[in-house]
C-alpha cells in the first residue's frame, strides 16, 4: 500500500477572494493579481469557483500560460490545491458571485489569507459584516488562521495627496471593529468594466487609463501578497 505522506509537497500560499455579496470586485482583484504575479515571474495558478468557470476562461483567453482549475465543492477545491501545489507557489481562489456561508467556511479552512474586497457604500460595508464575522470566528478556532484583510474597491479617483472621505470614514469604523484594512485601495476605473476583468493590455504604454489601474493592482499585489512571501514563495513566519 502506498504510504500517504503530506510532507512530500511544499504547500503553496493559498489566497481566497471572498465576500457574501455579489460584485465587490473579487474576480477583478483575483484575475488582475494573477496576471501581475505572472508578469513578476511568480508561479501562480487560479481556481475559479464560479458556475461554468467563466472567470478561468476569461483569464485563459487573456494569458493562456497561467494555469487554471474550476472547482466548486470542498473536495474538488482541496484536490485542485493539492495538484497545483506541485508546481505553483501561489494559488488564487476566486469565490463565486454570491458566496454562501458554506463556501466561506471552505475558504477559511483552505486559505492562508482571505482578501475581502468591499465597495465604498454603506450597503456594501454592511453587507460584508457576515463574511467578516465568519472569518473572525474561524481565526478564533484555528489559531489566527486564515490571515485576512479588507481592500476597498471603487474608491473615487482623487488628485494626488487627497483621500476619499468615505474611504477614511469606513476604514476607521472597520478598524475600530478590529478588522484589518489594507493601505492600498482600488480606485474606480471605467477601464475595469471594459476590459473583461484584466487590466494589463498590449497597449498599456499608450493607454493611460489601463496604466493607472495597473498601478493600483501592482500596489495591492506588493502590499497584500508579495510582502507575505519568503523568497521561496511561502508565507513568512510560519
Ligand atoms: N475598481 C473598479 N472600477 C470599475 N469597475 C469595477 C472595479 N472593480 C470591479 N468593477 C466592475 O464591477 C463589476 C463586479 O466586479 P467583479 O470583479 O465581477 O465582482 P465579484 O467577482 O466580486 O462578483 C464588474 O463589472 C467589474 O468590471
Ligand atoms: Mg466574480
Structural class: alpha/beta
Helices and strands, in N-to-C order?
EHEHEHEHEHHEHEHH
Strand content: 15-25%
Question: Which descriptor suits the 3D outline?
Answer: globular
What are the low-pLDDT stretches, counting only 5+ consecutive residues below 50?
A: none
* Spatial gap, N to C terminus: 32 Å
The largest sheet is: 7 strands, parallel
Output the strand order for the largest sheet.
3-2-4-1-5-6-7
CATH architecture: 3-Layer(aba) Sandwich
Hetero groups: adenosine-5'-diphosphate, magnesium ion
CATH classification class: Alpha Beta
Average of the residue pLDDT scores: 88
Number of helical segments? 9
Helix content: 40-55%
Give Rg in angstroms: 17 Å
Count every beta strand, where a strand is a DSSP E run of 2 or more residues: 7
CATH homology group: P-loop containing nucleotide triphosphate hydrolases
Question: Within the CATH hierarchy, at the fold level, what is the topology?
Answer: Rossmann fold
For the record, the count of structural domains works out to 1
Quick tags:
binds adenosine-5'-diphosphate, binds magnesium ion, globular, alpha/beta, 238 residues, 42% helix, Rossmann fold, 7-stranded parallel sheet
Amino acid at each position: 500500500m502506498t504510504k500517504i505522506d503530506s510532507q512530500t509537497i511544499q504547500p503553496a500560499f493559498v489566497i481566497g477572494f471572498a465576500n457574501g455579496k455579489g460584485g465587490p470586485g473579487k474576480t477583478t482583484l483575483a484575475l488582475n493579481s494573477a496576471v501581475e504575479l505572472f508578469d513578476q515571474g511568480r508561479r501562480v495558478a487560479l481556481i475559479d469557483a464560479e458556475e461554468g468557470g467563466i472567470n478561468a476562461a476569461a483569464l485563459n483567453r487573456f494569458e493562456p500560460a497561467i494555469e487554471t482549475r474550476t472547482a466548486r465543492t470542498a473536495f474538488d477545491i482541496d484536490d485542485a490545491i493539492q495538484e497545483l501545489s506541485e508546481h505553483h507557489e501561489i494559488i488564487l481562489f476566486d469565490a463565486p458571485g454570491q458566496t454562501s456561508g458554506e463556501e466561506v467556511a471552505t475558504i477559511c479552512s483552505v486559505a492562508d489569507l482571505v482578501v475581502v474586497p468591499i465597495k465604498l457604500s454603506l450597503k456594501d460595508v454592511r453587507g460584508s459584516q457576515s463574511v467578516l464575522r465568519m472569518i473572525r470566528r474561524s481565526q478564533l478556532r484555528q489559531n489566527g488562521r486564515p490571515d485576512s484583510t479588507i481592500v476597498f474597491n471603487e474608491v473615487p479617483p482623487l488628485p494626488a495627496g487627497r483621500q476619499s472621505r468615505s474611504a477614511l470614514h469606513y476604514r476607521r469604523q472597520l478598524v475600530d471593529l478590529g478588522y484589518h484594512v489594507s493601505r492600498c485601495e482600488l480606485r474606480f476605473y471605467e477601464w475595469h468594466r471594459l476590459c473583461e476583468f484584466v487590466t494589463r493590455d498590449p497597449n498599456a504604454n499608450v493607454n493611460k487609463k489601463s496604466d493607472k489601474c495597473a498601478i493600483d493592482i501592482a500596489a495591492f499585489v506588493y502590499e497584500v501578497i508579495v510582502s507575505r512571501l519568503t523568497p521561496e514563495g511561502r508565507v513568512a513566519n510560519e
